[in-house]
Give the backbone structure.
Amino acid sequence: MEYNPIHLDIMWVLFATALVFLMQAGLAMLEAGATMAKTQRSSS
Amino acid sequence: MKNVMDISIGSLVFWMVGFGFMFGADKSGWIGTNNFFLSEIDPSTDEGMFDFAFSIFQTVFAATAVTIISGAVAEKTKFIAYLMYTVAVTAFIYPVFGSWVWGGGWLSGLGENGFIDFAGSTVVHSVGGWAALAGAIVVGPRLGKFAADKSPLAIPGHSITLAALGVFVLWFGWFGFNAGSTVSGNDASIAIIMVTTNLAAAAGALGALSLSYLLWKRFDASMTLNGVIGGLVAITAGTANMSPGMAALTGLIGGMVVVGAVLLLERVMKVDDPVGAIAAHGFAGAWGTVAVGLFASSAYGGVDGLFFGGGLAQLGVQITGVAAAFLFVFPTSFIVFKLIDMTIGMRASDEDQIRGLDISEHEAAGYPDFAPALPAAGTSATPTVAQGSPVVVPSGAAVDENVGS
């Protein structure tokens, strides 16, 4: 297959997408930690 | 459940309509009009495949914006009401403002260089923050947040450890948020973006730590976590347009803005934001967007701010964008929250808040084996602290447990 610069763009955007997806976990853990023990199912 | 469901609902809704409103063909400059369900993308070409990659990248951005709101309404909002506004934000409010900036709309054409919000200090974070402000106002404060004389009381989070892990994960993910926003792996500026992002986060922690120490003479853990988020949110707009030094300064001030905004919200506006999302995302995002007009330097992104000889032009454009975000997002989301409140109700009852939403909404405890031990019947042991009585804490400590989300 011939080289196409867009392949690197796709790789980069998908890699960054995975990192940003992980931010959902970060926000969920931050929110769970910052709230009371009785609202954990609700917050996370 | 709230964070799990907002990425789930957000992914589906953004695919169906949000992406089209944000990036569809836009003749008016106000809203996109096609590419709903990604119907315009040609899957037979590499370019089409890039468009799919771009769409999933934008989907996780939309989910980030909506999840900010969950922090500000945590512990007091009905689950079904949360699901409904998740739809409204990812289908309409976030995409419409996004189209003005990133979808070729009117803000992107303002002035010589357009409104600069590289990865979304305003488009993602302020939009989420202002919607969170509207939500927090409509739902009202948690039971026991404010004393009878309206002074704020501390409702401590149950695990600063989890909160710290969350902040580390966010910091890590932010490298993708900012550097990924080149949407090109062939763009070498991803290197400087990583540098400015990291410096701003570090300086944000220092800013919040030092300001809270000046105010209260203690090293405040949750304010410092807040400051990391504030620094990251602030640099998100100018991450490709600033020198490392100016990025650190932007982050430092961003961390301080968070502390000030928490005080403003709790002491003056009497708004209860359980995790500090409005301060860290709304206020720090607005600051970071304005900072581009001050600190941008043409050696990095081709635009000069006020302090680098660019005059007031770009600063004016940045302020216009920040104001537009507030003036569009706050009223529209206030109306959405009010409509939900008037139909099915936003706020969990006092009784449900006392039992905890885990029991009232999900009918199971979050930590079932960690229920407080009660004395056996007939023994002399008696609880020393009356259950549910609010503990009045001295001024300053009242904000200790606010952590940005």
The first helix of chain B runs from residue 2 to 23. Chain B touches chain A through 78 residues (CB under 8 Å). The two ends of chain B are 16 Å apart (CA to CA).
